[in-house]
Amino acid sequence: MTTFKSGTTFRDSPTRPDPRSPLSSPKMTLAEIVEAISGGSLDIRVTAYDGSSTGPVDAEFGLDLLTPRGTTYLVTAPGDLGLARAYIAGDLTLRGAHPGDPYEALRTLSDDVEFERPSALTLAHIARSLGLEHFKPIAPPPQEALPRWRRIAEGLRHSRSRDADAIHHHYDVSNTFYEYVLGPSMTYTCACFPDREASLETAQENKYRLVFEKLNLQAGDRLLDIGCGWGGMVRYAARRGVHALGVTLSQEQAEWAQRAIVADGLGEFAEVRHSDYRDVAEGDFDAVSSIGLTEHIGVSNYPGYFASIRDKLRVGGLLLNHCITRPDNRENKRAGSFIDRYVFPDGELTGSGTIITKLQDIGGMEVLHEENLREHYAMTLRDWNRNLVDNWDAAVTEVGESTARLWGLYMAGCRIGFDRNIVQLHQVLATKLDDKGLANVPLRPWWRP
After folding, report:
1. Total Cβ atoms within 10 A of residue 134
2. Cα separation of 136 and 306, whole Å?
3. Which family does the similarity line name (predicted)?
4. pTM for this one?
5. pLDDT more than 70, % of the chain
6. Would you call 346 helix, strand, or coil by DSSP?
7. 160-432, what's its fold?
8. In which residue ranges of the chain is pLDDT below 50?
9. In degrees rounded to 5, what are phi and psi of residue 266?
């Protein structure tokens, strides 16, 4: 008999001429295929539409493959992209997990399953068991962006038109939906928790306080906030007498932010424009904040990006760059296939060392401080998932169940990445020097932690 490493056993018939041939073995069930590629016993329960199952019956979490379409997604895009397609389309569910927050199920799944490449004989047997129809690619869920090689019609990578399309893909989902997920602050960047028991709103307010103090802003100063989102930093600064200009490539964000500025009575101090940061004509700002933009501009564009910021600052002005980073500075910058297709098309991440180096190399800027807020982002994502669960029915009504499922999956998966130090979040503070290389800043950090 033929025994696979997973423990799945197929008995050979004495009438078959070659019991080792996949053509002479019974077809494998879907559960047996999962066992064969998972490399051992499972701690989760797996069930499939063909009636087969594997794993402990009393497992807390499980995977339920509901349709043949789901099998096609898994076969034609092995890895996270195929799993995401099947899950978003509703062909695969995570039993025991709310779709608004599948964090615990995903963590258990990632701890438990390590897919191994089976032998050629086993692969042939799997292919025969599945049937050729599952190897023919089918249309992905409508939320998926085109693959990188097909986005050339939108312009070269990180051209203005293609960047605008990428921002539209992610940020123009629905302002109402973002209100459900982000809460009253409407802040879609990492919070800074003063303690582990603090609320999300307290932590987001504390993040703006930290940025404001690091930039040493005073009433009457001028702030440029690049990639300003729904204007949280702009309004925080304006409430303290700072003249703040925010720019975003998302028209829906700009319209929402302008309404909030009017509603808060901040029109004298605050403005948010639907604009590329490269089109800001004003200069001589006392400070520039860039909170969650660097991920979108491309590492090769860092020199031009930082030079543009330098040129908009007055001598002695300060820059605070806040962005997701990698824990190293190796060459692999592009996001994985799931993130690239469903979350941040063309997004790129690199280590804080690369960011600091590129900032230093443009000349005229001195890096003063850097800080890693990795754990804070895991906690932020936890609270966003919680908000999605609390507002699930309304969120589904607003954007549809598949989009809501996508967001639950994406945020929970990212939380695991921050938990496990796969990604980090760094703030880098720098100042513009005068022509003699002097900086007009205090000798020691002047902000509260």
Report:
1. 18
2. 46
3. Belongs to the CFA/CMAS family.
4. 0.89
5. 87
6. coil
7. Rossmann fold (3.40.50)
8. 1-20, 166, 168-169
9. -110, 15
Residue 369 CA from chain centroid, whole number: 25
State which amino acid sits at residue 171: Y
Instruction: Specify whether 414 is catalytic.
Output: yes
Encode pLDDT of 97-112 as tens digits.
Answer: 999 999 999 999 888 6
Q: Give me the count of residues in the chain.
A: 449
CB atoms within 10 A of CB 436: 5
Q: What is the pLDDT of residues 193-226, one digit of tens each?
A: 999 999 999 999 999 999 999 999 999 999 999 9
Closest CA to 355 of 418, 306, 287: 306
Rounded distance between C-alpha atoms, residue 65 and residue 92, angstroms: 5
Active-site residue among 190, 192, 323, 414? 414
Q: Residue 367 contacts by C-beta under 8 Å, 6 or more apart in sequence?
A: 356, 359, 360, 428, 429, 430
Query: What is the C-alpha separation between 194 and 449, in angstroms, rounded?
Result: 8
Domain boundaries of the chain, sorted by first residue: 2-135, 160-432
Any residues with CB less than 8 A from the CB of 249 and at least 6 apart, and which? 163, 164, 167, 168, 171, 227, 274, 275, 276
The tokens describing 254, both together, are 């700009």
Q: Which two tokens stand for residue 415?
A: 């939380």
Structure tokens at 260: 């909030």
Give the pLDDT of residue 90: 96
DSSP 167-194: HHHHHTS-HHHHHHHH-TT---S----S
The closest alpha carbon to 187, from 258, 236, 259, 241, belongs to 236
Within 267-373, residue ranges assigned H as helices are: 294-297, 302-312, 337-338, 352-361
62-65 vs 92-95, strand pairing mode = antiparallel
